[in-house]
Amino acid sequence: MASVDVLRRMRADDVPAVMEVQEPTSVAGLSGVFPQDTHPFPREVLAGRWREEIDDPTIECFVIERAGAVAGFAALADDEVKHFGVALEEWGSGLASAAHDELLARMAAAGVTRPWLRCYAANPRGRSFWEKHGWVETGERSRGPMPPHAELLTYAYDPDSSGTGTTVAS
What we know:
With about 170 residues, the protein is of the alpha+beta class. Helix content is about 30%, strand content about 30%. It is built from four helices and seven strands; from the N terminus they run βααβββαβαββ. Helix 1 packs across helix 2. It is globular.
């Protein structure tokens, strides 16, 4: 089956559309991490971070597109998947899986042999997505950079743990 590219490089003028996707997705998916009554979505902080990362030559920022519209976001830094998410209306549609596979293919083409990422421990939907796609916990724990500094779990891609992801050399 031929794949269709869903990623394109993010530009500074994409940031408002990315925020329109990221805010409701984050509120819905991370309410166990960031209760909105005590830790509301930091829209301006995250928009500023995106702008900084777009300008950082060590980070590749992408929008995930559906029919030419911004439907998600992703960022890579060397062998790390820094950010990843799709719009609420895309949950379960297969778009996130397509973007995931395209990210892995890009990383493999760049010579990455052991991709990794961090996922909030209190994000069961996110953890399930990564595990379904062949990512395994490494046992490494850390804390998130923003209050309440919630626990992050480190995952590494293991193509032998699932048949759904793109194979990356070990």
